[in-house]
Amino acid sequence: MRTPSSRIAALLILTAITAPARAGGNCIADIDASGVVGVGDLNVVLSSCAVSSLGDINGDHRTDVEDLNLVLANWGCVSQTLDGAYFEGQVLDVCLGFQFENLISAQARPGVGDFNNDGTDDIILRDGDACDGVTLHLGSPDRRLTIGSITSLEGEFRGSVVSDFNNDGLLDAAVATADNGLWLLYGAGDGSFLDAVMIDTGVHEAIALGDFDGDTRPDIATVDGVDALTLYFGDDAATFAARLTVTVGDEPIDVAAADLDDDGADDIVAANWDSADLSLILSSSMSWPAPHNTIAVGVRPHALAIADLDGDDRPDIAYSTKTTWDAEIRFNDPATSFAAVLTIESPQLIKTLIPADIDADRDIDLIGAGWNGNLVYHINDGAGAFTLADTPVPAAGARMRNLELGDIDGDGTTDLVASGDYLRVLYLDPQGTPDTPIPFLSTINSPSFIRRADMDNDGDLDLVIAGVGVAVYLNDNGAFTQSFTGANPSLASGLAVADFDADGNLDLVAIAESSLSFAVHYRSNGDGTFTQNFIVGGGSWPKSLDAIDIDHDGDQDLIAANSTSDDLSIWLNDGAGTLAFDRLIPIGRDARSLAIADIDMDGFDDIAIAQEGDDAVLVLRGSDTDGFQSPGTPYSSANSGPMAVILQDLNRDGAPDLIVANETHQSIGVRLNNGTGTFGPMTELSGHWFRPIAVADVNGDTCPDIIASNDATAQVYLNNGAGLFTVTEDKYPIASDPRALLIFDADADGTNDLISMGYADRMLMLTPGKPPSH
Known about the structure:
By secondary structure, the protein is mainly β. It is built from 3 helices and 59 strands.
C-alpha cells in the first residue's frame, strides 16, 4: 500500500515537470503522439522518475488517465479524457446492517454539503457495525475521499438533510433514524461535528428539507412508516420547538418537498406504501394545518422525486413502484391536481429516484438506483416524454439504495453519489454523458457460459455465449456486435469451442441441462454461419463441458462432467468433425466444474473436477492410451463447498496450480503444484468473493492475479509472483448476478479488460483495464 510520504512525493514531482506545448491556447495532451490521451502520455510525463508507483498521483491504487488529468490540471490544461464521461471514484465499504433488509424499507439517502469550507462537497452516510452511526466523508479535488468524522447515534440511519440550521454560517446535518429519534449534528466548519442533539424521539423512516412556513428558515419533515408525517419548523436556535403532526396514508416510506403551487412556501408529498397513494400537503399560503389531498396511484409508490419534468415551470412528482417496477410521473397543472400520469419503463426495482440533467440538454432526466446495483437512466426529450437508456450502468454494488448529487471534487460540475453495499462517487464532466464501463445486452436468455475465441480469424478475440441457445459476438476494438444466434439447446449447462473438423474455423458445442445426455454441435461454414447437428451420449445433468484430445490422434474430442450420474461423458472425434459417444468414466459425487491442463508435465492432459458432493477436487491423470488413470487423487476442500476450478501456473515454475471457488466458505482455495503433479496444502482467500472467478495479470507485472466476484462487483487478489496473494482495495463494477468472468485485452490498448455476464438481466459488461499500482 502506498505510504502518505510516497503520495506527497508523487504530487511534488508535478512542479518539476515541464508543461507540454500549447496549440491555440490549449494543451496538447497526446504527448506520445499515439492518437489517444492515455497512460502512455503519463509515462512520458513521469519518465524522469525511476519509481513507477509514483504514477499513482491521486492515491487510488491505480496508475491511469485520472493521474494524467491531475498532471494536466497542474499546468492549467483540461484533459479530453473526461469529455462525456462519468469517471469512477474510490469504492469504500459501507456498513452491512441492511444486507437482508425488507424491499419496502426507506431510502436512507446520504446528505451532501461542504462541511469544511474547502470548495468541495462532502458526504454524510450511514456507518457503524449495525448502521447505527454516521461517517462524514470529505471530498477533494484529487477525487480521494477521506474521513472527517464518525458519530455514533445508536439508531439505524434512514437519511440525512443538510443546511445551516442554527444560523451560524456553518453547515449542519439532520439525521433520521428508524428506531432512535431525529438528530441534529452541529457542524464545526472543519469537517467535524461539535455535538449531536436529539430533536425528537420515535421512528423516522424518511426525511425531507424545505421552508414550509415561508420564513426563510430551514424546516424538516419526516414520516414514521405507520400513518403520520411530522413537520419541524426551524428557528435561529435550531430548537425546532414548533412542530405539527399530520395523518397521511398507510405506511408512508418516503417524503419530498417543493413549492408545488407557487405560493412561496414549500409543499410536501408523502409516498404511502400500503394504501397505494400519495399524500399531498399544500402550505396554503403558510396556513396550518394545511389541506391534505390524497392522490390514488393504484400501485405501491416507493421512492419520490420532484422536479419540472415537462418544461412548464411547475414541479412534477415522479415515483418508483414495487408493484410493476416501472416509474410513474404525475404532471402538475394550474389546479395542482396532478391528474395527468405517465408510466415509464424500468428493468429493475428502483430504490431511489433523483432528478438530474444527464445528457446536458437543459432538461431534467431521472436516475434510478436499481436494487441489483445498477443505475437506470430515463432520458427526457424536454417535453416530459422519457426513453430508457439502452443499458444500465453499474454503480454501488448489490442492494443499492441511495443516490444524491453534489460537486465532490470542486470542479464546478455536479457529481453523483451512489451507495449500497459500497460508497462510490461517479464524477461528471461538463458534457454529462456516461460512457464507461461499457454494458450491452445479450440477445439470449439466461446466459450462463462465455468463451473467448477468434471466431472470424481477424486476430482478435470474440465472445461466444450459451444459455437459452448460443450467440457469437465479434470484436471490433472492444465493441462487440452479434453475428450469429442459435436457438438450441433449450438451456445450456456447458460450452466448448474448438476446430473439431480441422478446417481452420472454430466450431461450437453446447450441452443441454437435462437428465439425457444431449448436445448441439454448431459446425462453422467459414462465412459466419453454422450448420446445426445434434449429438447424444450417456450420463445425466452435465454441469461442465470442454474440448480435449483424449486419444492423442491430433483432433479435439469432448468431455462433460455429470452431476447426477456422477461420471464423465466422453465423445471421440473421427477426424472429420463427427463426435461419437464413447464411454462413461465413474467419478465422485455432484461434479460442478472441470479444468484441463498437463498437471504432471508428462505431455498428456490431465483433468481436475470440483465435486461438491464429496467436498473435494478430484484429479485424474491422462494416460498414454485414450483415457485417464483411475481412481484419481482427491484433494479435500475442508467443508468449503468447491464449485468451480481453474488450473494455471501461479508461481512461475511451469507447473499448473489449482484454484478453486468455494461456495460454503465463500472463499477461494489455492493449492500450489509441487512440481511432480501433486498439490500442496490449500490456502484460503476469504472476503465473500468466490464465484465466478478468473485468473489473469491485472497490474502488468506478468504474474497471474485472481479476480473474484460478489453480485455486481469484482475484487482483485494480487499475486506476488510466488503464488501468495494480497487483496486490494480496488473493486470493479461488473454485471449483476454474474455467471462468468473473462479477462483479456479486448480493446487492444495493452491492458487486460474484464468481461462479465449477468444471468437475470442478460447484461454483458466490459470494464476497461485500469491496472492498480503495486
